[in-house]
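User: What would this chain look like folded?
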Amino acid sequence: MALLFYGLLLQMDTPTKKTAFIALILVSGLLGLGFVRALKGGSLFPNLFATISGVPAAATTTSPIAMPQEVRAIYITASTAGSKKRVEELITFVHKSGMNAIVVNIKDGDGVYLGSGMKEFVERLKKENIYSIARMVVFQDNYFAKLHPEFALKTASSTLWIGKGYAWIDPSVRKVWEYNAEIALRALNDGFSEINLDYVRFPADGNLNDIVYPAYDGNTKKQKIIADFSAYMKSRIKERYPERALSLDVFAYSLLTDGDVGIGQRFADLIDSYDAIAPMVYPSHFSPGNFEFENPAEEPYEVVLATLQNGIFAMNEQGKHTIIRPWLQDFNMGAVYNREKIQAEIRAVRDAGLTTGWMMWNPSNRYDISKYETK
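Assistant: Here's the prediction, encoded as structure tokens.
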């Protein structure tokens, strides 16, 4: 419904836009998520720092939680964050399991989830001393592609190019960088302690040969585009919030090669722009034969350990440093991920010499305390 109201805003004159936006806020409040997608004077992008009257959005009233020495996080969607019952269940889980952080979508391939509801969620986490991480899906973006198709990847027949059900935005378009920076800054303004960027890359799946880029020239190295975007995001965020953290999700394979994995993610080029880099070290996502295992999903300790050791070696070779904080698997793919396998992943992180933590991914947000609690 929020998307419907936002579409109407684009077609209304300025006074009517204000009235419609107030209605949008009311509807969003009922939904519990507090969608905020406002236009100011018909500008190209949502001005996420302004209310209708032009007054900057109120800053959070309490200081953000500092990054724990060892971040132990779980992932949840915006819809889960909008359910008070689920939030209370997850807070209980965090305290009982020894976790101390929650990663929540504030932007995914279907929209932006900011506003009063999300701000209340962050404040609730602060009261429980839980570190809050705002996850943003960047260049995979159905919502923005439909709103501004001139910046979206197309096919040779001029239709939106779709990869695994999602449209993509050209990573080289500066206005798209600005749009994502504004969203990140608003999330920090609302009290989040960290911004976690995902899908900061070129497409990896689908008919890649059929892509027509609206701006990317095809000659500039993809890794330069992604590195430049990363440096831009760092400059925008650190200028306003120097004490907050910026992290990036990358393919685990980027730690195993000196190249950019064909998508622009060259690990060595990204280290300087992020406080933490999060390789998605899901054993089920490795191919048969990797690390000489027929089914890597059955060998979580060895796969996680070897991947992280490679990344640490590559970072040291560059003479650089950042936190390596991996995403780990808590879902059944390739194998049943029971307590033994999840604990093996955690042990591998620590045995690799990393003391700064990990993040657990379960797409359904259903975490079993028996897999985590200390016995």
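The domain at 66-371 is CATH 3.20.20.80 (TIM Barrel). If you want, I can go into more detail on any region.
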